[in-house]
Amino acid sequence: MLLQAAKYVWVPLLVVLMLVAVVVWLALRFDIGATARISVLLVAIAGGLTSAWRVIGPKLRSIEGFLTDPVIQAALDSVVADAITLPPVGVGDPSGWSRFLESAEK
Q1: Distance from C-alpha of 40 to C-alpha of 53, rounded to nearest angstrom
Q2: At CA 84, angle to CA 68 and CA 69, rounded to 5?
Q3: Which residues contact 1 (CB under 8 A, 6 or more apart)?
């Protein structure tokens, strides 16, 4: 799943980067005023970053969900196991783990 999500990001991202490169090249190639050149470059870069984020954003969200779901589930399993596990009543702890855990919590 992770590789499938990452595989389809590159083609649209390369198209966006190529379009930005063409606009930047055209702005630098032709003799226009300095203000117009700076404006064109800023708009091209901002538009390219926005388009790139719109391409990458959904894929990153799916990858993030794929990576964090097992971690969240493991933490939830641990909390539930601690909540439903009761220590035996009246039975000593020959291993000493309960004293060790009590001293670690302090």
Answers
A1: 20
A2: 10
A3: 62, 66
Hey, what are 44's tokens?
């091209």
DSSP state string for 29-55:
HS---HHHHHHHHHHHHHHHHHHHHHH
Tokens of 87: 């220590």
DSSP code at position 89: S
| Residue where the block lists tokens 């005023």 | 33
- Total residue count of the chain as it appears in this document: 106
Question: pTM (2 decimals)?
Answer: 0.49
Q: What is the pLDDT along the chain (106 residues), one digit of tens a residue?
A: 555 556 667 777 788 888 888 888 888 888 888 888 888 888 888 988 888 888 888 877 877 878 888 888 888 888 888 878 766 666 666 666 666 667 766 6
Asked whether 9 and 56 are in contact (CB, 8 A), the reply is yes
